[in-house]
Amino acid sequence: MAFDKDAFLTSLDSMSVMELNELVKAIEEKFGVSAAAMAAPAAGGAAGGAAAVEEKTEFNVVLTGAGANKVGVIKAVREITGLGLKEAKDLVDGAPKNVKEAVSKADAEAAVKKLVEAGATAELK
Fold first, then answer.
1. What are the CA-CA distances from residue 62 to residues 6, 89, 93, 123 (Å)?
2. Which residue stretches of the chain have pLDDT < 70?
């Protein structure tokens, strides 16, 4: 008897999420495999494997120096982070320090621009 892939896919369409979950568990037990372990290599293979270079999506904004206008830099840090006056002052005094961590490239560039305009030296990492 030949396997009918179309009939199998049609029957999957009619299954509830709970039934699909039970099916996955039964396949894992029957064949001694894990769907989670198989998903990562498949995704990597589809993207070109180890040769693929991932584009960085999260950036850190690092305050490297306060500059001459320390008060303006503290105001900029408060605006960017939402910190209180004392916390923002401590961050500026403790430079080099991360001002924002794991933010998008656009947000990080905007924060660096704001810090530089206030007179600080900052960089994107």
1. 55, 15, 13, 5
2. 1, 35-55
